[in-house]
Each structure stands twice: as structure tokens, then as C-alpha cells.
Amino acid sequence: MCIILSILLGNACLWGQEPVPAREDTLKASRIVTDRFVVLPSGTRAIPLQQIKSSVSPTGEYDVIKYIQTLPGVSTGAEGSSAIYARGGNVGNNLTTLDGVPIYGASHLLGLTSVYSPDILSSATFRMSGFQVSDNNLTSSHIDLRSSDGDFSDKAVSTSISNFIIGSSFSGPIIQDKVSFIGSIRVSPIGPEYNLMQSVVGGPLDSLQKVRATVFDMYGKATYRINPCQRVSLSIFGSNDSYRYSQGNGDHRMGWSNFIVHASHAWEMNSGWVSKGNISFNRYKNGQGVMQQMSGTLNDLAIISSLSELSSDILLSRQIRQQTLVQAGTSVRTAWFNPGSTAEYEGLGAFTPQSSTRTDNRSFNVISSLYGQIDLGNEMSWYHVMASVKSNVLILHSDPDKKARTHVYPEGSILVSVKPFRWISFEGSADWSTQYYHTLEGIPLGWSLDILIPSDSKRKAESSGQLYGGLALNLGHHQFSIGAFKKQMKGLVYFKDASQLFSSSIAGWDGNIDVGEGSSQGLEMLYNKSGDKVTWQVSYTLSKADRLFPTVNRGLRFPAKFDRRHILNASFSGEMLKVNKIKVSLTSNFTFQSGHHETVACGEFDIIPPFGGEWFSLDYYSGTNNYQMPDYIRLDSGLTFDIDSKHKQSLSIGIYNMLNRHNIFTVTYDSGKNEWQKISLFPIMPSLHYSIEF
Asked: Is 0.85 topped by the overall pTM?
């Protein structure tokens, strides 16, 4: 509706006035050969897409999230995963959007890479503070991805292949200079690859049998230039991860999927106002299950979660002179939840019913927002002041009685940057943000197997208050920033049965959640040297994050699971050799992180049954997250060969964890051997990525 109204108003205006001359780009398309690192105020980073292509990952794929994991203020989850913990928040407190539409299942291949192709991106921004009016439903960070419109005049096709993903992308005109299209499709042959390796290697791979996997993502976007001042675009995005395998006497399955339809309209009015309207439908679904013989009974257990959203928004902005930008807008989002669980039984085993009822937890909420923002000055002037305010009305239909209840939540941000000299700036910000969806986090591997539940009267919206202050130096090719933050979080949820998903599915997740709070504070430093041939970067974070829940850890504070006290990242990228049309570049990444926390039994004690019988033992725990894992250390290196021929080609060869260090992810107790076993995820892993442009 916002888009239709915007178009009608736009055409009415244009019919009554002379059109604004077209702002055509008179420069031919150029190839970016280097990116200077851009540091924006108060925890906002513009991510250099070209620099991402030199990173090393386990899959060989270029990935925005892998680069974000090297920035200050960010702690990672399990090795190789896409999980991030920004300034002490949870994974579910981060928001990833593509053209403003949330992607709730943002990971591929069990967290090894992301579900979106880097070929479709025109820009990527990572923001942890100084939130804008367009940043909605988050309390920690926003990964803001923007897609390209596609070329209106020339065609371009690229194809790539890596260890785990084969992909292709296309950009070009449908109608010359009028309608453009950009699209991509990627598939993973991980299932056949695993089975082939199993037939050759056997041994360690034999624990999983009959591995089947369906992994793909696809994107398409058409953009229509209505006139020099208006354009409309329609895009479709879909992704799927589904896995099935046999282990022991059970048949296991898990997966997640996204489906997004998005339409947008942009209109530059003669009065100076710019209007942007959007409408989108977004569906996310995930689940995990097992079919297993137990006591002569075939048990089919599953836990399933789904979320559907219908959203619309319109944002008006106007540049007043050169130093003032005013923005105002409104949005409406309707969300249908079904974080339900199912438990089905078939068979004739003792005490086993023939069938069970299916649990259904359907509900819906409506969030209406009215917001405004003013910017005085900008990054190029000696000062920049940003102030935003937002009023959110949440209408709940998620309480057990299904009666509508209304809650009002204000939000706001203030950002101040002062630059007394061109080479130094002082920055500060304060943010008050609210999140209306809770995430019950499962195994923290970056998988999209979390359960999304709505806020209700019992579990109110999560909120965060954050202060940040620091300074930044810009000395030509050298940039340095240092800052400190303090953050308070309320309304956090703790899923007490995350490690026992199927037990929770039978008993119901609703009774296994505690609501509490958290706090974090830290110091962040970043140094970057940029150049045409050599770039390096060093980041360091000193931080502390804790949690407090009434029924967890006897009501005492305990460290957050991924509270890593020290995090150091260093990366290097440079041109080593150039012969004729071949350029050879070297990339290296090093990371050191303090170990994360696990809850480990300190001992056990014997229990004597009061009415006779055999003795049995129970574990004793001194506290939640009471054991700190060993420090995490990893070194990655890679070579990239760029061939500037008629068809540009690139070959990247990388080695992930080249020290072959077995970083410990968790520990488990082997009762048979009467000893603790350390579990690591990735040894040394080579990667390969090849691409060609037509």
C-alpha cells in the first residue's frame, strides 16, 4: 500500500511539473582495485567488499560474516561457525537484513558460510551503536546488506566453484536502459562429496551413514526505471539447508529455510524530498527430528519452529542545505509465530501410546512504529550530531488467552562526533533499543536451529541501554580508533533445556525458560593500514559479559558462555607479484581469543535409595559456566591468482587452521574410560575457490 500510494503521488506530482533532469553517470564502469578502510562514528563499519574476497574460510567462499568476526567488539562462537556475539549480547540479538528485510536463517552448511551470494551485494554495513531509524527489532548489532540493481546496458555473467559450493550470477538489461535484472544461484554438493570421501577413507567417517543433503540459495531482482526520478524493484530470495543421516539405530534429520518476496519504490521529488517505500513477505522455518527404535517401539520425535512476516514501511528524507538531513517514517509489521513442538509415537512398546497429540503454539503480533531522525553536519565537516527517536506500539495476541494487549516502547539514539582537526575526531553515543522476538538458542554452532518466540505478558520485549565513547585518528593510509562501551540488557531469555531438544519437545519449551538480565563493558581498539598493494589490520577487544537469572546458578551472576576476556585479530593482504596479466596476492589471518565458558561437573556424590535398591551417583556442579576452555588460536593463509584476460579469472588457494591446532570446543565425560574427553571441530583444512567472468 505504501508503494502504490507513493507511485500515485509521484506520478501526480511529475505530471504537473517539469521533470528533474536525469542524473546519469557519465563515467564508464570501472573495476575497483583497492578499498580504503572506512571508519564511521561510534561502532559503525562500512565493510570493504573487495577486501572480503581475500579472506580465508573453511569452505573457500567469500563471506561478509567472516570479516565481521575480525572486528573489535565481536566474539565468535564455535570454530568456523557464523555465530557472533556483539558487545556481550546473544546471537539472537543480532539482525541481518537484505535490503531491509530480515534473514532469520542466515547460515549455510552448519554455519560454515552465509546463505547470500557476495556477487549480488553492492554494500554492507555493520553497526553496533549509533543506531539509525531504519534499525528495527534488535539490541546488539545490525548487518545491513544492500543488493545491486543490475546493469541497465551491459551483460555480465560469472561462475565460481569452491570446496562446498558451486554458483553462478548474472547481471544485465531486460529492456535496454529501462529494466535491469540481477540474479544468482548456488548449490552445494556436500552430500555426494561426503559419501565419496566415506567410500575412500572410511574409518572416522563411518559413524554417519546414508548422508543426504539439499543445500542451495537463489536470488533474483528486477528494477524498472519509471522515469528519471523514480524506480521500482521486485526481488525474490530463497534458501534451503536440509540434512538427513543414519547414526546408530536412528535416522536423524534437520534443516532450515528462508523465502522472501520484496517490492520497493524510490522517488526523488521536485520539492527536494526523497521517498522510499517497501512491502515484503518473509517466511522462515526450521526443525530437527529423529526416528529411532526404543524398546521395540518406533519413535518419531521432532521439534519445529516457523515465523511468517508481512511488513510495509515508508521513509521520507530531505537534505536541507548541506549540513542538515531530516528523516521521518512509519512501518507496520505483522508476525505469525508457531514455535510448536511435535511428539509422535507408533508401536506396541510397554507404556507407549499408539499416538500422541500435536502441540500447536500459533500466535501473532503487530508492531507499528513512527520514527524520525535529524543529522546535523556529516563525516566531512568538523562536527556531526545525529538524534533519532522512535515510538513502537506492540499489539500482542500471543498470551495463552489470545486476548489482544497493547504495549508502547520508546527507542532512541544520540550520536556526537567532533573533529577539531582533520586527523582526529572524538565520538560518543547513547542508544536505547528494543527487540520484540526472543531467541531460544540451541547448540551455539551458528546453525539456524534456534527457536523464535514472540514477546508476551510473561516474557516482555528485550531492551538494551548502551553508552560508547572514543576517539579516531586518520593519518592518510593509517587509521586508528579506540573506544569504550558499557551496556545493560533486560528481558533476556535463558533456554534451560537447549542441550536436550527432544526432551523439551515432549515436555514443552514454555516451562523451560527463565527471564533475566545481563551486562557487559569493554575496550575496543582498531588499527588499519590501507594502500594500493598492501593492507593490514589489527584489532583488540578487552571485555567482560555476565548474566543474571532468578532460577539459574542459585540466582547469582555468572559469565556469559562466550565471554572472551581478550580477543586479538590480525590480518594481512598484499600484492606479491605481477607478471604480464597475472597478479599474485598473499593473505594471512591470525586470531587469539580467550577460551569460552562451559558448565562442567566438579564431581559426583552417591545416593542411597531410602527404600532399598542399588546406589547411584549424581553429578555436582559448582555453578553455571563454571569452567573456562583453553585459549583459542588459529592462523589462516592463502594465495590468490588474478588473471586479467578477456574473461577475468581468479583462483584462490587457502589453508584454514594451518597450524593444525586442535582448539577445544567442549568437553565430555567418558564413563567407560573414567576420564574427560576434549572435543575439537576442525583440523587443518585446505580450501579452493575459482571464478570466471564473461
From this structure: yes
